[in-house]
TrEMBL record:
Protein name per UniProt: Uncharacterized protein
One Pfam family from the record: HTH_24
Alphabetized InterPro entries for the sequence: RecG_C_sf, WH-like_DNA-bd_sf, WH_DNA-bd_sf
Origin: domain of life: Bacteria
PANTHER family: GLPR-RELATED TRANSCRIPTIONAL REPRESSOR, SCHLAFEN ALBA-2 DOMAIN-CONTAINING PROTEIN
Organism: Dorea formicigenerans ATCC 27755
Amino acid sequence: MSFTKLKSVYKQRTGNTFEDTDYESFGLIDEKGNLTNAGALLADESPVRHSRLFCTRWNGLTKASGIVDALDDKEYTGSLVTLLQAGTDFVRNNSKKAWRKVGDGRIEMPDYPDRAVLEGVVNALIHRNYLEIGSEVHIDMFDDRIEIYSPGGMVSGISLEGKNLLKIPSKRRNPILADIFSRLKYMDRRGSGFKKILADYEGQVEFDETKMPVFDADNDDFTLTLYNLNYGTNYATQVNENVIENVIEISEEKMKQLMPEYSKKKLTKACEILKMISENPNISIDELRIALDVKDRTIARYISELKDKGIIERKGPDNGGKWKIK
């Protein structure tokens, strides 16, 4: 089994190299070198067939609102790290941002706060019941909301109805997975996901009590509903998150001056990277890799060299930050 994706993300998010000794310390293998359940779920080609993610952007407010039921749908398999990134990317690609001018700048108002979406998908993948065969994690997007469904309710079996979510003690169904995702800096060891989701929503300028996230759980299922903060508003200006006003065109001739050591093939790739960053400053390294059809180490090398030459820089964290072409 290979763990290329896990190693790449670990390096990207922590700056540390995944060592051979980490296989056992992470809980991917046992002391005899045998693959653990957690290892099977995090392998590049996960052998756990029911570890899948279904994402659908429905047309309207229900699953049967019009002539065309689904506007976009994807099915993802592989490492849990791959599923997490695919799920958050799907939401981002099917969301919009509203904005309004304030003085010399503007305030961006996303349909769904990034941190809340990340926490929701992490929770669904990490705390699901993997003993339940024939059921998968689902992300269903409607005009007014997202529903993130995960097989397996609260570990304690309690219902969340009428409970103070901020006072519910954290119990982990899959502690090894939770520990690994904490090491990857995707989640907090203290289990504060509910608090972060609520805080992220309450911190948005367009938030009101009617858009409060809803957590619903019983013995068998867990569903998180995130409401579209811009649904039903009169904001006149809405733009796709993946579109910016000014696309910067950089020719191969100019790139040759900046990177004289590059071959023509590498210059072409570098220009493609800059064009994609220009069109979508939020694009992830993995999305660049997929678009260019190159390996993790190849895209990492391009990014590193472009940074070293002062051509691009990253503003903010790896997850949630933006690229800037200087």
